[in-house]
Design goal:
- This protein has 505 residues and is α/β, with parallel strands linked by helices.
- It has three domains: 160 residues, Response regulator (Rossmann fold, 3-Layer(aba) Sandwich), CATH 3.40.50; 139 residues, Beta-Lactamase (2-Layer Sandwich), CATH 3.30.450.40; 167 residues, Hypothetical protein af1432, CATH 1.10.3210.10.
- It has 18 helices and eleven strands.
- The strands form two sheets. Strands 8-7-6-11-10-9 form a six-stranded antiparallel beta sheet, with helices on both faces. The chain has a five-stranded parallel beta sheet with strand order 2-1-3-4-5, sandwiched between helices.
- Helix 5 runs antiparallel to helix 9.
- The radius of gyration is 32 Å and the shape is elongated.
- The termini are far apart.
- The structure holds fe (ii) ion.
- The site of fe (ii) ion has 5 residues, from loops.
Length: 505
């Protein structure tokens, strides 16, 4: 079993990159970890420094003008063979990165990378700073360097292959809870840990709540709560850095068993610069430590899962901003025509009832639920003197009113809604016999969601009281709709409407 990678303090890092902004960014990231960074803008000055100073790790760009990254690597290996070198490469120069491992680099980082990945690679390099053979070393057998390079390459390929599998596994899930569970399951397998758990940070009530747990015999861990102020959680969250240690049994309450020191890993997942989740792995008293390779993979896994969660949070933010903007538009419409808003929500509810009575797939119900309240949003573009007119439209006014479906679809088009969601807005005034608008579609040419919405829309119009007429009773409204079965409305939709909950009072 390999020794575990423990936090490395007082690490002195040489950073060589010709790009000022890259050096600045990397220095900031590495310094935040408490490491001392000395940066150099060219290979020549770095080699000079390397001959008189000691460094724990060298981080160098492959592509540099003048003395290139590869030239630098050769010289660095001669001047300081014990110092591990990590090369940074852009995507097109991956071959060069592989080449760099052949010539003695311990690892490479492929741009773009996250701060967490950088940290993992640096920790791994510093932890593995076993003296590598120097070129021309007479004490070692000829062929040792290629052998070591071959092993490093094999390890790197294996690591990249596992990381690729991890990425693919995470790509398969999109719900937050599924990502938690998958991250926990993969981490447990990689680390060969006896127990694994996921805790979510709840800042509002100062608690960590267990959302997923594995390996706990007959104990329901889900929902167990811990205080954010208690160690070791407080330190992990404050440092935003993983903690791996031999814990006295029972030190984390029910999360680790009693009975003696056991290996525990707590790794925070950072989303929008805030630690929001802690992944925990634990062995049993006297159990094996997590190997450095496994730890590297687990930390890569949490970095990838964090990115995935961050993307979900970003999409949700964008989506809720869009919904907020649409609600503002609806409110603006409601201020002019108070009937519309209540009508929109009622019609949506009715359409959902009919869709359920038809046993439609959930996607149909979801499309109606989302787009229903927006179906008349195009009326925002209709002038007050027409919108608020109580009947008696001229031909021109009627055409302007009809244009609300096309205007509505135009308003929503940039939002990339589903086809079925846009169909609710665009086609809710089409008729089964082809006499509707805007396109005069007939029968099943009209999307199902719009055929359902059409019945619900008419039913609500008849059963609502308007300033200029009383509401019709449910029975009268039902008879009117049944009369239009096969002309205005899809017969199957009318049949479902008749047996739906809508007519049961
Ligand atoms: Fe409409």
């Amino acid at each position: 079993m390999q020794a575990a990678v423990l936090p490395i303090e007082n690490l002195r890092i040489m950073l060589v990159d010709d790009d000022d902004s890259v050096r600045e960014a990397l220095t900031e990231i590495l310094s935040r970890r408490g490491w001392l960074v000395e940066d150099f803008s060219n290979a020549e000055s770095a080699i000079t420094a390397l001959k008189r100073e000691n460094y724990g790790v060298i981080l160098a760009d492959v592509n540099m003008p003048g003395l290139s990254g590869m030239d630098f690597l050769h010289l660095a290996r001669e001047s300081a063979p014990d110092v591990p070198v990590v090369m940074i490469t852009g995507y097109p120069s991956i071959d060069l990165a592989v080449e760099s491992i052949k010539f003695g680099a311990v690892d490479f980082l492929q741009k773009p990378f996250k701060a967490e990945e950088l940290e993992i690679v640096i920790r791994k390099a510093a932890g593995n700073s076993v003296r590598a053979p120097r070129p021309g070393d007479k004490t070692r057998a000829i062929g040792t360097l290629p052998e070591m390079a071959r092993r490093r390459l094999e390890d790197k390929i294996k690591e990249l292959s596992i990381l690729h599998t991890i990425s693919e596994s995470l790509d398969e899930v999109s719900e937050r809870d599924d990502i938690f569970r998958k991250t926990m399951d993969i981490a447990q397998i990689i680390a060969d840990a006896d127990m694994a758990f996921i805790m979510v940070v709840e800042h509002d009530n100062g608690k960590l709540v267990v959302k997923a747990a594995s390996g706990y015999d007959n104990r329901d861990m889900i929902g167990a709560e811990f205080s954010l102020a208690d160690e070791p959680f407080r330190s992990v969250l404050a440092k935003r850095c993983y903690s791996y240690y031999m814990a006295p049994g029972g030190s984390l309450g029910t999360l680790v068993p009693e009975g003696g020191p056991l290996p525990v890993l707590l790794a925070p997942m950072i989303i929008n610069r805030e630690p929001v989740v802690i992944l925990g792995l634990a062995g049993r008293p006297g159990g094996n430590e997590i190997s450095s390779d496994a730890l590297t993979l687990v930390l890569n896994l949490t970095a990838k899962a964090s990115l995935k969660l961050e993307n979900i949070a970003l999409s949700e933010n964008i989506f809720s901003s869009i919904i907020g903007a649409l609600n503002s538009l609806l409110n603006a419409l409601d201020a002019r025509d108070t009937y519309t808003k209540d009508h929109s929500h009622r019609v949506t509810k009715y359409a959902v009832e009919i869709a359920k009575a038809m046993e439609c797939p959930q996607e149909v119900v979801d499309s109606i639920s989302f787009a229903g309240p927006l179906h008349d949003i195009g009326k925002i573009g209709v002038r007050d003197d027409i919108l608020l007119k109580k009947g008696g439209f001229t031909e021109e006014e009627r055409e302007i009113m009809k244009s609300h479906v096309v205007r509505g679809e135009e308003i929503l088009r940039p939002l990339n809604l589903l086809v079925s969601e846009r169909a609710v807005v665009l086609y809710h005034h089409e008729r089964w016999d082809g006499g509707g608008y805007p396109k005069g579609l007939a029968g099943c040419e009209i999307p199902l969601v719009a055929r359902i919405f059409s019945v619900a829309d008419t039913f609500d119009a008849m059963t609502s009281t308007r300033p200029y007429r009383q509401a019709l009773s449910l029975d009268v409204a039902k008879d009117e709709i049944v009369k239009c079965r096969g002309t205005q409305f899809d017969p199957e939709v009318v049949d479902a409407f008749v047996v739906s909950e809508l007519l049961k009072g």
